[in-house]
Amino acid sequence: MASTSDIRNGLCIKYNNDIYKIIEFLHVKPGKGPAFVRTKLKSLTTGKVLDNTFSAGHKIEDVRVETHKFQYLYPEGDLFHFMHAETYEQISLQRDILDAPDLLKEGEMVMVIINTETEAPLSVDMPASVILEVTYAEPGVKGNTATNATKPAKVETGASVNVPLFINEGDKIKIDTATGSYVERVKE
């Protein structure tokens, strides 16, 4: 058992007969009344995100998990195939377990969180950012250079990302996997 003082991002807990991962949290100590912890929880079985408040000192049941490095191999419908980096054992995961499946490139290394009690994969942690090549982008219109003007662009994984007007086909861009947004152009 853990208490609210042990809450941190990435902690997996049992709550309402389901396993949740803490996405973000905030310890709040108001001027009046007891302290509490405001959390945002993501269900590892359904993918739903819910807000919850725990009072200070509340006991929470944590789930023992291990993280292993896996390499993404290929998609097959709604299944995504991964290979363990050390044992070469292959697993298949449903699309809804992944945070940003559209940004996964074949050969990409990810961290898979596995429940040690049941040996079941719970979630996939993507790298903070990925570098992908732009396969299609409309040409930027000359004179349309208002502040922060963007256009949609397709990347090699098939995802659509809003990019600045100066990005062209063939450019490599860095994309933040948490938000799915453009970060910068990558020069090689």
TrEMBL record:
Domain of life: Bacteria
Annotated Translation elongation factor P/YeiP central domain residues: 67-122
Family: Belongs to the elongation factor P family.
NCBIfam families with a match to the protein in the record: efp (TIGR00038), PRK00529.1 (NF001810)
Pathway in which the depicted protein is active: Protein biosynthesis; polypeptide chain elongation
GO molecular function, one term: translation elongation factor activity
Coiled coil: none
SMART domains: EFP, Elong-fact-P_C
Function description: Involved in peptide bond synthesis. Stimulates efficient translation and peptide-bond synthesis on native or reconstituted 70S ribosomes in vitro. Probably functions indirectly by altering the affinity of the ribosome for aminoacyl-tRNA, thus increasing their reactivity as acceptors for peptidyl transferase.
Annotated source species: Flavobacterium rhizophilum
Alphabetical UniProt keywords: Cytoplasm, Elongation factor, Protein biosynthesis
Annotated Elongation factor P C-terminal domain residues: 130-185
Subcellular location: Cytoplasm
Pfam families from the UniProt entry: EFP, EFP_N, Elong-fact-P_C
Protein name per UniProt: Elongation factor P
UniProt keyword Ribonucleoprotein, yes or no: no
